[in-house]
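PROTEIN DATA CARD
Card holder: Signal peptidase I
Chain length: 121
Origin: Actinoplanes palleronii
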Amino acid sequence: MDLIYTGNAGPDALAERGWLLGHFKPEGDPRHSADVEIKWGRHPAGDRRAEWVRGEQRTALLVLISGCFHMEFPERTVVLAEQGDYVVWGHGVDHSWYSPEETVVLTVRWPSVAGYAVGAR
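Structure generated from the sequence above:
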């Protein structure tokens, strides 16, 4: 397999619910990693995560590219409203999200851990 991959986050993200890089890509693919996952998240207005993530084992960084995005935590909601706004959360932090308008976010989380897929984007 080639050690260089080029693509576009829009169409590439469709294959894995937005995830571009992580353990779920085949071994030998430059996008395979057990260390980190990267997601290009496109969310239509009114989109909401189907279930809360509970007992989180990873650390995550979410950056707003466009739109408005609400990261929901048990104690508070963080509203990302300006391009470049971001939030970081760590191990053990339960969370969910809501997109009140069409939004694009970039998420980086580590390590890449199998078994977190739910019926959400």
